[in-house]
Specification:
By secondary structure, this protein is α/β, with parallel strands linked by helices. The chain has three domains: 57 residues, no CATH class; 156 residues, P-loop containing nucleotide triphosphate hydrolases (Rossmann fold), CATH 3.40.50.300; 74 residues, Beta-grasp domain (Ubiquitin-like (UB roll)). The protein is built from ten helices and eleven strands. The protein has a six-stranded mixed sheet with strand order 2-3-1-4-5-6, with helices on both faces. Strands 8-7-11-9-10 form a five-stranded mixed sheet. A hairpin with an 8-residue loop joins strand 9 and strand 10. Helix 1 packs antiparallel against helix 2.
Length: 320
């Protein structure tokens, strides 16, 4: 077990804690190596975590050294999908819920779509556009009482966000949902809060949706969609962006217009100091202040301190 009985720094992120759980449950050498690398990438970098960072680095060095001695491949497991874009959203659901159809409709990924179950056998990523950012969708094999890939809970934990996808035409939809919830809890995997209710275009599915809302109540946010017609898929992109807990920031050089073509992505609650670090390390080290620009003229060029919390679509001009 990693660093048992260590004092827990108060501000370890959910991403880090999920990666730590992955390390504890990892069985193979490659799984342990991937989990440690993610722990190092997601741990907050400050004085309170210096010892923990050093411990992770020592373990990484030992595992890599063992790889060289044994001739173990450094290749990551096939199911480990590198997160890209503004965040990774894992689509979790039973067979034939339409996850592959949603990914195919929302992205340029060539997901295999078929009427028979268990079409998807490996994670299939695709990039979904939301305004000026891209969100990575991950089509996954189904969670089913008949069969489930053993690595599936770990992939779901590693994603920034999980979304439950069900097909409203499935007569076993209630049993499917209950099995998925039980499986996620047993594997200590976060239970999605958003339920995509697919195939709303089919006759009779509105009644099924009403039954789900009545049965599960506020446990989920329900979004009826159709991969076939595209109904409400724009709303799904908006919901996914909001649920990821991120904001966009644009950089403006002094005396020049802002670059609005490529936003920097920050976690909600991060500050001007964090934003400066993303633009350039020297900005963060030598930042004196920043000027904040927004569409509202009331905030045009307002001076803000390092600790000012960045909001979505803020434009910042850094002064060093």
């Amino acid at each position: 077990m990693l660093a048992a009985k260590r004092p827990m720094p108060a501000n370890l992120t959910p991403d880090y804690l999920a990666a730590e759980e992955e390390f504890k449950s990892a069985q193979s050498h490659d799984e342990k190596l991937a989990a440690l690398e993610r722990m190092l990438a997601t741990i907050p970098k400050h004085k309170g975590t210096e010892k923990l960072q050093a411990d992770i680095k020592r373990r990484l060095a030992r595992l890599r050294k063992e790889s060289q001695k044994k001739g173990t491949s450094h290749a990551a497991p096939f199911w480990l999908v590198r997160r890209e874009g503004a965040g990774q959203v894992a689509l979790v659901g039973p067979p034939n819920a339409g996850k592959s159809s949603l990914v195919a409709r929302l992205t340029h990924a060539h997901a295999e779509v078929a009427a028979y179950p268990f079409t998807t056998r490996a994670p299939m990523p695709g990039m979904m556009n939301y305004e000026d950012v891209q969100i990575q969708l991950l089509d996954l094999p189904p969670v089913s009482s008949e069969f489930m890939e053993r690595w599936l809970p770990q992939v779901i934990r590693m994603a920034n966000l999980g979304v439950l996808v069900v097909g409203l035409d499935d007569p076993s939809v209630l049993e499917d949902i209950d099995f998925i919830l039980q499986t996620l809890v047993e594997h200590r995997t976060p239970v999605p809060e958003l339920m995509l209710c697919n195939k709303i275009d089919l006759p009779g599915t509105a009644d099924t949706l009403a039954a789900l809302e009545d049965l599960y109540g506020p446990r989920f946010r329900y979004l009826p969609v159709s991969a076939a017609t595209g109904a409400n898929l724009d709303r799904f992109a908006r919901e996914a962006f909001a649920a990821l807990g991120i904001v966009r920031m644009y950089s403006k050089p002094p005396g020049k217009p802002a670059d609005l073509s490529r936003p920097y992505i920050l976690r909600r609650g991060q500050t001007v100091q964090d934003a400066a670090k993303q633009v350039h390390k020297d900005f963060a080290d030598n930042l004196r202040f920043a000027r904040l620009y927004r569409e509202s003229s009331a905030h045009s060029g307002m001076m803000v301190e390092r600790t000012h919390v960045v909001e979505d679509r803020d434009i910042l001009e850094f002064h060093i």
